[in-house]
User: Fold these one by one.
Assistant:
Number 1:
Amino acid sequence: MGESLPEPGVIDDTIVAIATPVGQGAISLIRISGAGAFELLAQVFFPASGKAADIDGRKAILGNLRDARGDNVDEVLLTAFKGPRSYTGEDVVEISCHGGILVTKKVLETLLAAGARAANPGEFSQRAFLNGKMDLTQAEAVMDLISAQTELALKAAGEQLAGRLGEQLMDLRAGLLALVAQVEAYIDFPDEDIDPETGDLLVKRISGIHQEVSNLLATADQGRILREGARVVIFGAPNVGKSSLLNLLLGFDRAIVSDQAGTTRDTLEEVINLRGIPLRLVDTAGVHRSQDKVELEGIHRTHQQVENADLVLHIVDASEARSDDGTAIIPEEGRHLLILNKVDLVIHSDWESSKGVRISCTETCGINDLEDAVVDVLAKDGEAWGNNLVAINTRHKNCLKRAKLDLEAAGKNLKQKGSTALPEITAMDLRSALDHVGEIVGQVDAEEVLGEIFSSFCIGK
């Protein structure tokens, strides 16, 4: 979990970290933040002009960094940002030095010796949050932006970083706060009961907020897929073209292709970018009736992959008759596509009327149709990918689910006529919903939540 979080306004130390990846490059960037950042640099930084260091923000200055003995460590370019007009809201200095591993380490050691403290993972973004530069959803978007694997994921992270999700959640909080105020007004004046007409209006307003919460929850799957990739399992009997399809979608030969049954005995996994959607393609062992212990273990693993899949690509040999090969294990509620392979050969009458996607791995035809079908199946309620890029993560989902239950309880309470305790019970439910929504953007005291979020960040961010 790391160290306990400082309270806003009482952060009094200066932190430093290397902000570029470990390794050798042209330039390394070292970031410093804190009230004493400028004074610290004045001890060890000497401008090339020969004048005393004048670090007051909004300047880039060339000079030398010197250690406590006065020896030159490196020639660096120093860029200063005066708080609160900086990433963290504090005085920030970014030092560009030569990108060697040793020289970068020496620069960091010099700054630590001058009085800076090594930053914890995510501490720069944590300070930005604590100083009101961003809400929690924006802070989380920083890491989403860094780890984005596709353009759609990058766009979604960018919109969240710009505050689109935070704005929706703050509007939700405002609506809930108004409801709480109205209900608590009846508590303050006990002689005034909630009349039926007012009660119906409150229920209607609660229902509207409930729908907004449901709309946000509906983006959870899309958010998970953009961040982690959709788990797409290629499934079927032996020798129907599973490994060939994997290689075709990847664009290179990853899996061994052979006419011999049982060539693939374990699962293979690769990630591809399909029109902006990250897919985790899983090639599986062919499912058939077997007595071989190794094959049976592979088939068991195939069943496990199917159970955990976001999408199953059920591929068959359309040139052969249907057979009872043991492949009928796909859960009915799961998303799956039937793929008719080998359509370059004569299609067997058993498959002529099937609505599956028709392809040929050997002739590489039908692949665009398959890609269209995959995108359509993964789309939420038929909505095109990219139309709605507000995509919540697992933490947001859990908070919103609890808020939804609170709203349902509040609405149910208001519909029960004649109970003198109704306003108090309803207010408690609405305040609970308000807290759960506020937890997402960091509007409640949740030190443990903050520690969990920022501990997953990289050093220097």
Number 2:
Amino acid sequence: MKNVWEFLVKGGICMIPLFLCSVAGLAIVIEKFILLQRRKIIVPEVVSVLENIKGTNDFPLAVSICEKHHGPFANIIRSTLENHNLPREEIKETLLDQGRQEVHQLEKGLGVLETVAGIGPLLGLLGTVLGILKVFKVISVMGVGQATSLAAGISEALITTIAGLFIGIPALVAYNYFASRADALVLEIEKYSNRLLNKIASFPAASGK
């Protein structure tokens, strides 16, 4: 552990923002891994009650089930059920408005992860440039014979490059993975929402006609 710390310290000042980026990225990855589980978003109890809606008399039970489960899916379904007596187009507009808000919650934090993926390698490149600058400074003052001083500058350049790529590559992979998972969940929410909308439209007393 001590050797690792000494290795990172040799990277110079650019290791500080790189370390902060790694902490932020790891925090987002852990949060999204927990929150974007399908079972937590597409709540089985809500799906079950939706499948068993046979008429407007089933709406209060469905709303009560949704109120017990906080999340994008439950919130969208509850909002749709609570506005079931509106005309179809107004229900659809309400559904879209609620959907935009809930999708934002699903994607929250992904922007930070994308930024970490982009800025990590750039910070590594900055450290590389600073390390090379030190090398040229040593050469200009002491000549090319100072192998130890030259090695220190080159080492700093390589360490920051490695650290930047080590942070940026996993962050980019994680961002693409979680963005894809969020998109898949949004599509599934849309599927169930459209089914509910069609059911509501099929009940004359609730269609607003």
